[in-house]
Model the fold of this input.
Amino acid sequence: MNFKGKDIISIKDFSKKEIDYILDKAKGMIPYAKGEKYKDVLSGKVLSSLFFEPSTRTRLSFESSMNRLGGRVIGFSDPSGTSQKKGESLADTIRMADSYSDAIVVRHPHEGAARLAAEFADVPVLNAGDGAGRHPTQCLLDLFTILTEKKKIKDNKIVLLGDLKYGRTVHSLAHALSLYGVELTFVSPASLKMPNEVINDCKELGVEPSYTSNLEKAIRDADVLYVTRIQKERFPDAEEYN
Done:
């Protein structure tokens, strides 16, 4: 299976077979992630790390991976120090990074920004989170964690809890889990329910999610509990958050 040149914008761009292949390959990468082995397979390659939003784990995981495989990283973690501050468009920033690097990882506050970035780049674009949209690379990691801890993904009873409206990680994960025929339960306040688009997506894949505000009931027989924080920065106004 060949992913050379492929963007990672949404988990929906991958089939179950492709996801299984990635998860299988990930097992062999654990010694490299831990620093127990070293391979310079990315020697001479440059990753542009463009983070228009704050990040700790996602940004450092990309940069660590690139460095551990012999590559180099350029980019920024604060757009206030870039030409964006002077009015440069996202398209022009991407064109610039495209000319300097072999791949681009981008996090942006606006939903759809990663897809737009891919239209202006010749090199692969990896979505590290676009607003309240999707977070495909986090989704792959979450699937790998479930597989590692539970030995399988299929047939698990999985509860997604928290801000399901604005939480991009659960939007991606709900789709991916539905590919495996899991039993899904959503738990959130009424104002932070999972978007209908995501629910309908699950149904189209053969999974009928259940909904409850009763956490104790939801986790009673759960195999996996996935918790996402309230996404304060996504609320259109402070009153809704309060």
Summary: The mean pLDDT is 93.
